[in-house]
Amino acid sequence: MPQVQSPPYAFDVPGAAHYTGSSEWEIRDALRRGDLTPSYRGTKVKIKRTELEHWVDNLPNER
């Protein structure tokens, strides 16, 4: 029986972009504005899955 994999707990910027369907630029811009809160592993930026999901859920519904 195939094993179902859950998404990672945290992502780097390229992974966060892929997971949310956004560009890396959008993720970096959201980090700069404070819309996303980063965590760090040494000098590497990590963004928690729940943080990304909250950010996407709160994007505007209209242009």
> How far is the N terminus from the C terminus?
44 Å
Helix content: 40-55%
Radius of gyration: 13 Å
- How is the biggest beta sheet arranged? 3 strands, antiparallel
| Number of DSSP helical runs | 3
In terms of DSSP E residues, the strand content is 15-25%
Q: Give the overall form.
A: globular
Unreliable residue runs: none
The number of strands is: 3
**Neighbour order of strands in the largest sheet:** 1-3-2
Protein architecture, described:
It is built from three helices and three strands. The chain starts with 9 loop residues before the first strand and ends in a 6-residue tail after the last helix. With 63 residues, it is an alpha+beta fold. The chain has a three-stranded antiparallel β-sheet with strand order 1-3-2. Helix 1 crosses helix 2. 43% of the residues lie in helices and 16% in strands. A hairpin with a 2-residue loop joins strand 2 and strand 3.
